[in-house]
Every structure is written in C-alpha cells, then in structure tokens.
Automatic annotation (TrEMBL):
UniProt name for this protein: SRPBCC family protein
Membership in a protein family: Belongs to the AHA1 family.
Domain of life: Bacteria
UniProt xrefs under InterPro entries: ASHA1/2-like_C (IPR013538), START-like_dom_sf (IPR023393)
Source organism of this protein record: Sphingomonas telluris
Activator of Hsp90 ATPase homologue 1/2-like C-terminal domain sequence ranges: 14-158
Length: 165
C-alpha cells in the first residue's frame, strides 16, 4: 500500500524476527544502531502504544545535532510484526510544529517484520510524505543510503543479541 510520495526500503536481515523486533523497539537497543555511523543516537524515548512518544536525539562529528528532537507519535503497534509512527503528531496525537533539516517535513514511517525462514527477517520500511516535494527532500537527504545503512546496522546489532541471548 504505497503511492508515488512514498519511499520504500526492503531487506532480508540475517537475524531472527524476535531479536530484530527487540532491537527495534527497546530504546537502549535502538540507540546502538538507528543512526548511520559515525552519527549516534544519544537520547531515545519510545512508548509502544498508540499515542505514545517516539523521540530521538541524533548527533554527529560534523556538529550535527537534532537537539532534543521533535517528539513523534506512535500510531500502531502489532507486536513483533509492525510499528507505525509519525513526526506530524506528538505524543497523545497533538499536532507538531515542524523543525529544521530532517525535521522540516512531516513523515509517517510504517515498518513491518516477517519471518523469512532460516532465522531471517523480511524487513520493510515505508516513509510516507504528504507530497512529491517532501519525498524529494527526504530522498536528497539520503533516504536510501541512510535507511539502508541502518538496516544493515540493525541486522548486525540483532545478531549480537543472539550471541548474548
């Protein structure tokens, strides 16, 4: 269910679905892989319920800093299968003021996880935008490279959970 204003990333991750889900939905785990290195997530709040908060602070060696980050809103949680969140709304579904840079346009992310067999996970991330201009801005910020890089980091991090499980 995508349209021309959406950006899509699909990967088969070499890690079991339960560990990929844990890596994605536990704030302490998410901080380890969610930003393309050498950028880092220094703060993360994630309340896994509709209307709950999804907020990160990303910093980089080039003095990039989202500040405390605009708090997004969790829209849907299907445990182990799907997480949808948006930057257009804050916690409790309150409309957000948009910020600067990567926070300058509203976006909704729908991330799904399916068991791909043999300990692998089919991972799909769709970024929904309100129009072609926002989609293009997100694409030019490096959606495919950035989200692709972090999908690889998610895979690698989830594998460490397997070792530690």
């Amino acid at each position: 269910m995508t349209n021309e204003n959406d950006l899509v990333l699909e990967r088969t991750l070499d890690a079991p679905i339960d560990l990929v889900w844990a890596a994605y939905t536990d704030p302490e785990h998410l901080k380890q892989w969610f930003a393309p290195k050498p950028y880092q997530i220094t703060e993360c709040e994630l309340d896994l319920r509709p209307g709950g908060i999804f907020r990160i602070r990303m910093v980089g060696p080039d003095n990039f800093d989202t500040g405390h980050g605009t708090a997004g809103c969790v829209l849907e949680v299907d445990n182990g299968k799907k997480l949808a969140w948006t930057s257009a709304l804050g916690p409790g579904y309150r409309p957000n003021e948009m910020g600067e840079g990567c926070e300058s346009f509203p976006m909704t992310a729908i991330v799904t996880f399916e068991d791909a067999g043999n300990g692998k996970t089919a991972y799909r991330a769709v970024a929904l935008h309100k129009d072609a201009k926002d989609k293009e801005a997100h694409e030019q910020m490096g959606f495919h490279d950035g989200w692709g890089t972090v999908a690889g980091q998610l895979e690698q991090y989830a594998k460490t959970l397997r070792v530690n499980a």
